Amino acid sequence: MNWKDWGWKRWVWPLVLILSTLAVSLAAFQNWQSPLRPLITLWFMAICPGMALLRVFGLRLAAAGWTLAIAFSLALDTAVGIALLYSGRWSWQTGLVILAAITLISTLLEPFIKRSEGPQPVIVVTKVPARPRKPRAAAKTE
Questions:
Q1: What is the predicted pLDDT for the residue at 32?
Q2: Residue 130 domain-assigned?
Q3: Is 45 in contact with 77 (CB distance < 8 Å)?
Q4: What would the pLDDT profile of 55-76 be if each residue is shown by its tens digit?
């Protein structure tokens, strides 16, 4: 891993994701009685798990990235809820802990995943004859 390639712009999203995870955990488990609590929870549930996983996959797109992050976050929220419901272990605390773990683990693993920046050129090597072949004579028919 080359830390010099990680400029300050690449640290913004990991920092936002970690701080959002901490904020929603504190808001939920410390039982904050604040009008900001629903906004923090909505931000986390709608953006953070999907954005963390999309960054691990290497998708850093402007508008499409936000759309995919929201869709992926809502899909993860639904999948975690359904899995907890079917397993008979439903509780919002467990679901929040699972989503926070997905977000934190994905965010912390991102710098260690090696991927290329953009498509790599394809090199095709073909065997070229040194001199052109003479055309074969047509078979004589009797």
A1: 85
A2: no
A3: yes
A4: 888 776 677 788 999 999 999 9
Q: Residue 117 above 80 pLDDT?
A: no
Is 121 inside a domain boundary?
no
Torsion over CA: 68, 69, 74, 78 (sign): positive
CA gap 58, 54 in Å, rounded? 6
Mean pLDDT of 1-22: 77
Q: Do 95 and 68 contact (CB within 8 A), yes or no?
A: no
Provide the pLDDT for residue 78.
96
Predicted structure pTM score: 0.73
Q: How many domains, in total, are found in the chain?
A: 1
Do the domain assignments include residue 24?
yes
- What pLDDT score was predicted for residue 58? 77
**Is 66 a domain residue?**
yes
Q: Which DSSP string corresponds to 19-70? A: HHHHHHHHHHHTT--STHHHHHHHHHHHHHHHHHHHHHHT---SHHHHHHHH
Instruction: Say how far apart CA 76 and CA 51 lie, in whole Å.
Output: 11
Cβ(1)–Cβ(109) under 8 Å? no
Task: Provide CB contacts within 8 A for 74, sequence distance 6+.
Answer: 46, 50
